């Protein structure tokens, strides 16, 4: 069970809160005004979560993105293109770059921080009640933020006791307003059921590898049953399936890129989709993946590509 006193941790959190306060520069004129009055694109497709909040359906993933200028530029390109959701993790070791990009972009465009949905994740080594608070405070400091929109257990890791302690810590952090929503990643069916049985707050999402070549239908069905949304990571199968001829045929016929077909399929299945790119043109075209609708016939043809192909494993995530 969680300890009842949290005051030392809370005071540390208050420090992090003050540090992030300068980000809260509200511009009452228009949050959508870009530089020189240019309107920022606003194709805000969101999904409802089981805690009553909404999540933008496409995020820029930043796995394997360096903690420097390249990542800052990519995030700024994404925000300029219309993304309002960034998916990072303590493990990616690029939270400072993400925070700097967010701050720069918000200042340049006069957009309040609240307009951008920020996700990060607790790494396995930080499971446990106090350790979770410490890691959360550390991530908030690195980002320069007062709160995260979504905070995930990056993986179930091995120790059930510590995992549940971490979940209790996240439930408390949510009450304190340090995280708006809490969820999990890389949870298979058994670990998810165990958490559901022991949790006071249900996870809003399970972030797992899902794409047409590895659809994890049983796990997706279990999540659906509990109104836990799937966040589809590696939606492009890390680029390994972009040359698939069956995806290529649909893409060519519709005048789309293979990546757009894969992202559109995942979104049509109701997933939050997390394509990663550090290339501005791909960042832009990936975001345009929701601007068309696949026919039922094409959706069925893509469904039929299942081959249980995954690039990572659920339990031992290095990502
Ligand atoms: N929770 C977890 O354990 C976990 C694990 C893996 C991933 N994730 C999340 O999911 C995100 C995405 O997954 P991922 O990074 O594994 O793989 P991914 O998004 O499936 O693929 C990324 C690769 O595809 C390339 N790419 C992107 N758009 C493209 C396009 N339009 N045309 C051609 N190539 C394109 C990228 O290259 P360039 O960068 O060179 O453009 C990169 O090499 C991660 O960044 C992370 O946020 C989470």
Please provide a brief summary of the model.
One of its GO terms (molecular function) is oxidoreductase activity. The chain is 40% helix and 13% strand.
What's the structural blueprint in terms of helices and strands?
Blueprint: H1 7-20, E1 46-48, E2 54-56, E3 60-61, H2 69-81, E4 85-87, H3 95-109, E5 117-122, H4 129-143, E6 148-153, H5 160-175, E7 179-185, H6 189-198, E8 205-209, H7 217-225, E9 229-233, H8 245-254, H9 258-268, E10 272-273, H10 280-287, H11 296-303
Parallel strand pairs: 3-4, 4-5, 5-6, 6-7, 7-8, 8-9, 9-10
Antiparallel strand pairs: 1-2
Helix pairs in contact: 1-4, 2-3, 2-10, 3-4, 4-5, 8-9
This protein binds NADP nicotinamide-adenine-dinucleotide phosphate.
NADP nicotinamide-adenine-dinucleotide phosphate is lined by residues 61-63, 87, 154, 185-186, 207, 233-239, 242, 257, 259, 274-279, 282, 285-286, 312, 317, 319.
Family: Belongs to the aldo/keto reductase family.
Domain NADP-dependent oxidoreductase: 64-306
Protein name: NADP-dependent oxidoreductase domain-containing protein
Can you describe this structure?
- It is a single chain.
- The chain is of the alpha/beta class and 319 residues long.
- The chain has a single domain, classed as Alpha-Beta Barrel (TIM Barrel), CATH 3.20.20.
- It has 11 helices and 10 strands.
- Strands 3-4-5-6-7-8-9-10 form an 8-stranded parallel sheet. A two-stranded antiparallel ribbon has the order 1-2.
- α1 (7-20) packs parallel to α4 and α4 (129-143) packs across α5 (160-175).
- The longest helix is centred in the middle third of the chain and has 16 residues, at 160-175.
- It is globular and about 55 Å long.
- The two termini are 29 Å apart.
- Residues 1-42 have low confidence and may be disordered.
- Residues 61-63, 87, 154, 185-186, 207, 233-239, 242, 257, 259, 274-279, 282, 285-286, 312, 317, 319 line the site of NADP nicotinamide-adenine-dinucleotide phosphate.
- This is NADP-dependent oxidoreductase domain-containing protein.
- The record marks 121 as: Lowers pKa of active site Tyr.
- GO terms for molecular function: oxidoreductase activity.
- Residues 1-50 are annotated as: Disordered.
């Amino acid at each position: 069970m969680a300890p009842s006193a949290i005051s030392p941790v809370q005071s540390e959190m208050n420090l992090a809160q003050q540090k992030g306060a300068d980000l809260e520069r509200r511009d009452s004129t228009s949050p959508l005004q870009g530089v020189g009055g240019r309107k920022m694109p606003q194709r805000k497709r969101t999904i409802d979560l089981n805690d009553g909040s909404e999540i933008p359906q496409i995020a820029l993933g930043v796995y394997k993105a360096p903690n420097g200028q390249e990542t800052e530029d990519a995030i700024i390109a994404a925000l300029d293109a219309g993304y309002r959701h960034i998916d990072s993790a303590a493990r990616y070791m690029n939270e400072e770059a993400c925070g700097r990009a967010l701050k720069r972009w918000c200042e340049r465009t006069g957009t309040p921080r609240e307009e951008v949905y920020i996700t990060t994740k607790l790494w396995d080594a930080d499971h446990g009640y106090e350790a979770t608070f410490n890691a959360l405070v550390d991530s908030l400091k690195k980002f320069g933020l007062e709160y995260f929109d979504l905070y995930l257990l990056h993986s179930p890791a091995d120790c059930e006791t510590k995992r549940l302690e971490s979940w209790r810590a996240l439930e408390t952090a949510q009450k304190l307003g340090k995280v708006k929503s809490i969820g999990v990643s890389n949870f298979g069916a058994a670990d998810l059921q165990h958490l559901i049985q022991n949790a006071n707050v249900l996870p809003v999402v399970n972030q797992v590898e899902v794409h047409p070549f590895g659809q994890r239908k049983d796990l997706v069905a279990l999540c659906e049953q509990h109104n836990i949304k799937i966040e589809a990571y590696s939606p492009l199968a890390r680029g390994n399936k972009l040359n698939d001829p069956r995806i290529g045929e649909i893409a060519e016929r519709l005048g789309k890129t293979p990546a757009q077909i894969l992202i559109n399929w995942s979104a049509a299945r109701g997933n939050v989709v997390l394509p990663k790119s550090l290339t501005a043109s791909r960042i832009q075209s990936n975001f345009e993946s929701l601007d068309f609708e696949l026919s039922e016939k094409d959706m069925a043809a893509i469904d039929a590509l299942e081959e249980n192909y995954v690039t990572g494993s659920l339990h031992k995530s290095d990502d």
